[in-house]
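Hello everyone,

My group is preparing for a crystallization screen and wants a predicted model to guide construct design. The compound we'll soak is adenosine-5'-triphosphate. Before spending weeks at the bench, it would help to have a computed complex in hand. I've included the protein sequence and the ligand's SMILES below. Output in structure-token form would be ideal because that's what our pipeline reads.
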Amino acid sequence: MQFFARRLSFYLVAFLIAATINFFLPRIMPGDPLAIMFGPQMARMSPETIDAMRDTFGFSDAPLIQQYFQYVVNVFQWDLGVSTKFFPKPVSEVLADGLVWTLFLVGSSTIISFLLGSILGLLAAWFRGSIFDSLATPGALVMQSIPSVVICLVALIIFGIGLNWLPTGYGYDTSLDPQWTFEFAGSVLKHSILPIGTLVVFQMAGFLIPMRANMINLLGEDYITMGRAKGLSGSRVMFTYGARNALLPSMTTLAMALGFVVGGSFITEVVFNYPGIGYIMFQAILARDYPLVQGHMLIFTMVMLTANFLADLLYVVLDPRVRHGGEA
Amino acid sequence: MFFKLLIRNPQAVIGMSIMAFFIVISLAAPIIAPYDPEARVGLPHEAPSSEHLFGTSRMGRDVFSQVLYAGQISITVGITAGLITTFIALATGLSAGYFGGRIDEVITFATNVILVLPQLPLLLVLAAFLGEVSPALIAFIIGVTSWAWGSRVIRSQTLALREKEFIKAAELIGEPARRIIFIELLPNLISIIGSGFIGAVIYAVMTQATLEFIGLGDPTSISWGTMLYHAQTSSAIYVGAWWDLLVPCVAISLFGASLALLNFAVDEVANPKLRAKGALRRYKRMLKRGEVKA
Amino acid sequence: MSEKLTLTVKGLKKDFRSGGTTLNPKKMRALNDVSLNLESGKALAIVGESGSGKSTIAKIITGIHDPTGGEIELNGKNVVKLKGDDKRKFRQKVQMVFQDPFASLNPTHTIRHHIERPLKIHRKLKGDALEAEVLRVLTEVGLTPAKATADKYPHELSGGQRQRVNIARGMAAGAEIILADEPTSMLDVSIRIGVLNLMSDMKDKHDIGFMYITHDIATARYFAEQTAVMYVGHMVEWGDTETITQAPKHPYTQLLISAVPDPSKRIDAPLQGGERGEIPVWYPDSVGCPFAERCLSATDHCRKEMPGVTQLADNHFTRCHLYS
Ligand SMILES: Nc1ncnc2c1ncn2[C@@H]1O[C@H](COP(=O)(O)OP(=O)(O)OP(=O)(O)O)[C@@H](O)[C@H]1O
Ligand SMILES: [Mg+2]
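Reply:
Good plan to model first. Here are the tokens for the complex, ready for your pipeline.
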């Protein structure tokens, strides 16, 4: 319990720091912060809206510390102001619309990469030094070091435009109504193949490489040698003895990876015009919609912190030592 | 000895060759490039030909000349950001690991906070407020936001090394802390620092491309990222000018891949456990001697 | 070596944390009331089973660990809380040789570096004089040809050669007392005697004082004038090496000696005869004689009260109720 209290207070501080960055950015830029924040859109806003925005972001003549306090209180109440691009929708609402799509994209691609990466990593370790290993392992690393922009663009060129197999834009066929019908679900699925596929390509190495390293370490342990010496078949030993133990470290990375890949999904959404929060962020940047840009960073921070907290939970479940007051 | 092992590693050799190739052709861009990268030297979107090796862009610029010059900026940004990242990681990781106590607490806290904050959105917010960010500024903001992971790795290695007897022995002969850190500890961290640096360069090149692709960079500078940006905004793929987009894509990918290969080789050489060894080999030997059956 | 040095340890205590939580730590006592003397030109052997606290004594003297209680004096001057220049001077005089010759040299530096550094720090040598001294020291410890050795890296030397480098490093610093923590235990039996002879030479020719920590009573007899026997952090018998090995009085020492007729055998091999209990862990609030659990002659008294020091002869002491 002490462990969780400590972690939670740490996350609270981390979130506060993210909010603090947001608070200071418009204020350290040269010029009137209010004009920076709302730019040309100010002309379109009614005086009441402008006052409400002043209130949300703490722009007033009060001392800085008081402005800061006001802003932080608002942020913790998830009052992030009004989007100037999607005016007059509040930022929190715009983000909530996108989050569903992003979580769908990220969740499915993470699960697929986890399964695929772990199995390939296992095989690479087991057939250490084989042709498979010396292609798959550096291959995975190389894939990981190609920017997602490139992967997405190449996928778009080949499958979307060159072969014209798959739809290249938006989350579903826009001629359909978003309803719980098979047709709609099928359209969603079809539209998600390219984005999910590219994310998997990008993510898989993150599971393959550690899995292979863990497994190689484990293969040095005697019980594996013993299992084989006892005459158990190769695959039996590999899955029952090796995989189970090698997977444990991967499980905790899984939750963390979820947080990271939300960032990675940004480009995917931009390239495929996928309606998640990454794409919303892109539009916000183009329109210099700063309230939305800032809200986006905060919601990502929330996602990261939640993922980390899940990793903590998993860690405690898997490693009982932590529960009893050891070091975190 | 380390270097000798590296030279014998095929992945390292391939990686180093590609990387050297890129560095040389970018440096030699003024000699190799047939045209001024910023001049209109042809019709919009001319297909690759003997005159324009990689075709022309929407603005009628020579893509081949552009990709050479772009290499200069992209690689420089990558290396600069990598150096900044590595330097901060090293300074913080070493101090935290060696001095411990209060210093360690503060640094570890800062590291952990940066690690749980979302990197890309943070960069996007910074860049969005800064406006069109010049390559130098991009290198700087990438450098100062991405040191946390390296710092953590170096700290834990330093902690382990600090307990080694040769460090104790150096303390006992009266070496000052400064020398213990730089002369006794640091050389033992070289392979970690090396692979951390390579990783940081990869990350920087990728992130720069991303930021510029979505239009946060300075569109008048010529880098692989801004080439992508211009190709994308001129709808190059939809009008069939695939070369406009593909050329910078291939350049970034090859350069990133060469670094990744090199990094893989460094890990392999530095961590002998990852080399084929141990049980598997023992098992294979037993197999050969007929002591077990497959 | 003008003046004779005497390093005196009085009533040394050391508690280590062993489990418990940060707020409520459990402590074990690794050393309890340890007192001893080291002198230039003499050797004191510290003998005892694994975990009896031998290394801890050396690590406290050199300042790697802080003592929980007790005093350490060099020629009457307390050295526990030295700072700055005084600390440097103390370190110059008292050096340590570690047990593991593989771990005690920096793999990224040549042998020259290891010898040069103490020469530069403590004797401020430079240039040709420095190089000449490096070669002289290496020759002195038998690492010839000295020039070729100086250019090698630690992994290019054998265990015995590395241990010689460690001793040379202490000499280069100008040490007058060397704390050698099982310097030969990780070496092949055949090369142990060479290292031991080297230490003997340094003791006799250069008047260096040694604390020789060992499991091996035979080499203690060969090398050290004085011997102290440790059991679970306590000194149970000490004095003249000949007397202790020929006519041991404490039941633990007797057990120890009878168990090791073969000098190459380590005394942590299972002890025969007197073994009735486990080696205990000592806590700050433990009572009685630490050996009572295993002692054949133990009485109730032994389990309740810690025996005091009894002087058996001119230079022969023990802590045992049988003699008090
Ligand atoms: N840093 C430490 N933290 C906690 N306990 C320690 C520490 N160092 C030593 N101890 C404990 O103190 C006791 C004495 O250890 P020490 O290393 O001095 O034994 P030793 O006689 O040198 O044994 P060996 O012959 O194996 O080297 C042991 O029980 C050990 O577990
Ligand atoms: Mg010891």
